[in-house]
Amino acid sequence: MKESITHKIIGDLSKNDEAVEKFIAAGDKDLLIDFSACTFISVSGLEWLESMLLKAGSGKVNVTFIELSTTLYKVFKVARIESILSACGSPAASSNSAAC
Amino acid sequence: MATTVTEQDLGLMDQVNSLARKARLAAAVFTQYSQEQVDAIVKAMTIAAIDAAQDLALVACEETKMGLVEDKILKNLVASEFQYHQIRYKKTVGIIKEFPEDNMVEVAEPVGVILGLSPVTNPTSTIIFKSIACAKTRNSIIFSPHLMAADCSNRAAQVVYEAALAAGAPRDFITWIDKSPRLRRITELLMVHPQVDLVFATGGTHMVKAAYSSGKPALGVGAGNTPVYVHKTANITAAATDIIISKTFDYGTECPSEQTLIMDSEISELLLNEFKRLGCHICSEEEVDKVAQTVIDERTGSMNYKFVGQPAKIIADHAGFAVPIDCKILLCPLIGELRKHKLVVEKLMPVLGCVTVNSEQDGINRALDINYAGGTGHTAGIFAADDDNIIEKFSQAINAGRIIVNSPTSIGGLGGVYNNLHTTLVFGCGTGGGNITTDNVGIGNLLNYKRVPKRSNFIMTFQTTKNIYINPGSLDHLRGVKTGVTFIVTSKSAAKRGHLAMVMERLPSQTRVDTFSEVGAEPDFNVIKRAITMMRQSKPDTIIALGGGSVMDAAKIIRLFYEYPDLKLNELAVNFLDFRHRLVVFPQKTTVQLVAIPTTSGTGSEVTPFAVLSMDQRKVSLIDECLLPDVAIIDANLTKTLPKELTVDSAFDALTHAIESLVSAYASDYTDGLALEAMRLIFEALSPVLDNPGNVLLRHKLHNAACLAGMAIGNASVGVNHALAHSLGMIFGIPHGKANSVFLLSTIAHNAKMPRKFTSISSYPLWIADEKYARAAQFLNLPVEKKTNGKLALAANIENAASVSLDAKDIIRDQREARKQLLIQALSRAIFDLLEKCGQAKSISELGISEDDFKAKLPDLVALAFNDLSLRTNPSFCLQADIAQLFIDSYPPRTRP
User: Is the ipTM reported for this complex over the cut 0.90?
Assistant: First the structure.
């Protein structure tokens, strides 16, 4: 199991975070991304997270999102991007809910 | 930069997926926006739309070759300025509505990704309208424009989107499908795309039908075919002007616009002359045929789309007759059978059918003909001065989501100009048009509403008889009672025991007294009716109920039906789940005074709002505050001669009242005090009074106990014990007090156990029946086995220590539980011992019911008990299996607990 490092997103996430990309490029440590100081996420931010997770997967770097506010977690839930939800530890969406 | 799909080299699904994904991400990001951010975006979009209203109208007319630029400008302004005026202060984020009386709030949740279809007739205004509505509700929208209007529609989308983006809106929250031969197919694929949450369809019938068939939630419109009834009371000039304004608006492209006029014969000539004066052409019979051949497609029977939104002159030219260049409308009198006339359908052009009628009924019926010729649910109009009559009749008959009164139906239907309807370009048509709503569709339809009801507890009250005279000798109160005519309801035994004479001699000397002595045990309604017949002669101002529970219950019902003869007993007796929601409404007040004088110490009926009587081989219970007597006289002198058996039966009835009301789901601090004191008095006095039946002090305690327990059940009700006893009493003819006695030990054991199923009563949040039984034992100072007392002292010491370990807390909990069980056991033992001392049956077998009879009747016993109202307030929910087990447990002889 790799050693892990924590990186905090501060303020709006509206573009790529270079520090995160460097960690992933190095590939020697798993990454915990701390969203406790993240105040807003844009469409570009979502797109970057998805592409970043794709790269991390290729480089065998485990990325985990932590300290998510409910507002941001709801954004991820509504966006329905599987890799992002997986990084949050969210269960896979089910389309076979029983009706009452 | 606006997002468009222009990559022609992408496969069709790539385009579809790309549009859907962009909209999905935008919808997700939009969830973070505050009301202030949303409102700023909406304002910026509105300003941009107003600025572009004229340009967009021009390109719309150029591309579609339909309608009038000036009117399309107005539509664009309605979609922007008017809509903004209506929604600017509306809350669409967070808590949007509060219902303080219901202790509830409503929270908005965006719909998500919307696929918006727009029509050729309103290609830019619809886009403006839907875009602003989506921004206000934080939804993203993908526009699918009509192929014949795609360029102008998409330009409108671009205008408002760019303004929104500049104001901080999420990227791609508005996207659109570019004009191409694949537009229709892309739309079809999007309609069923998993990322699309709602289809918002405005357009031709086929498109709307496709939207509803997509399997997605859909908002759509239906076809219109607006009938307008011009009543004889209408202002002719104003009506003609409004109809012309409406029918010429954008050359008739608005779907709520007038299609056929129905004119009362008294004014039809005047009205047609007025139309002529104002520049319309009244077609001859021959011209009507020509118009019909021109504007109606022979193959489909519907309007010919070539003439949608064209001026009257062009249509007349094509039809082959001349009209002035500025002719406003071609008015076509529809001769012959209306339903079969070609022009009876929707005509989105300045062609207007008209028909003359000879009566209001005929007028409304002909309007219905038009309404049901393809326009149900959409729009109708009426011009009339008589607001209270004809308009109401018309509105009741016509099936239309909007019935426009004394104004143009097209602009009137848009809302906000001639009335206060919600501004819209999407006219819901309800089920008549195959839609989910009849609304003027707008922001209210683009939200999910999350209702957040907080727990509402039943407001508990305490009610009882107002004046209660409570000491031995209090019968003397009758000497001062204000009455001219008194009607005494009693039983034959009251005379025998001398009670009737005691009452008569105390009533004021001038009082006229009539007596009804026919009430026996468990009277039926025939007895009540006989008493009422007698009362009609007597006309009393006071009723005195002198006797036991049956007499007092009968008197309550007699008073009710005497004063309200139209009441129906079977309705009053309808069972209910919750007192607050029950079907029946009892009268609010009674005028005849009811004085209740109990001669037994059991039911407490003198202070309860209950009355029981027999009806069709079953007992029915009436429950209402209006049944409460006005005065109760609790004079123990009347019970001195009560036989032993009756004394015991009634005392155990009262004890059961006290025990059941104590643990009832509706118990309160008020009823608890009464129940506990009633129990104490019975334990104290019942056994001694059997040896000394003439002791007034002991009788006084039992009489008060019954009254206190009556007040307790009058407010907290009873429980499963009574349900079982009613059932046993009804099937085997067992007196109520005896029937109660045989179940007491079983029902206490049952209710003291953790329920198999909790009862769902909002004011009973915690199951505490076991605690209540233990509390009763403590209150009664009953002896408890001492085997754990040492440990309890230890537990108390541990609890008082500064720091308590988890293990110690476990010990405390265990010891408390053990103590509670001992107290419950003490209560059960005390009841067992009291039953024993009184010689009262403790089990069903002791009542002389054979085991075979009991087993044979068990299903009936269970069914009857399960339907008993008493179960509603039991502290645990009793399943049928529980009830059966309680019966079975109560059959064999008992041993001391």
Answer: yes
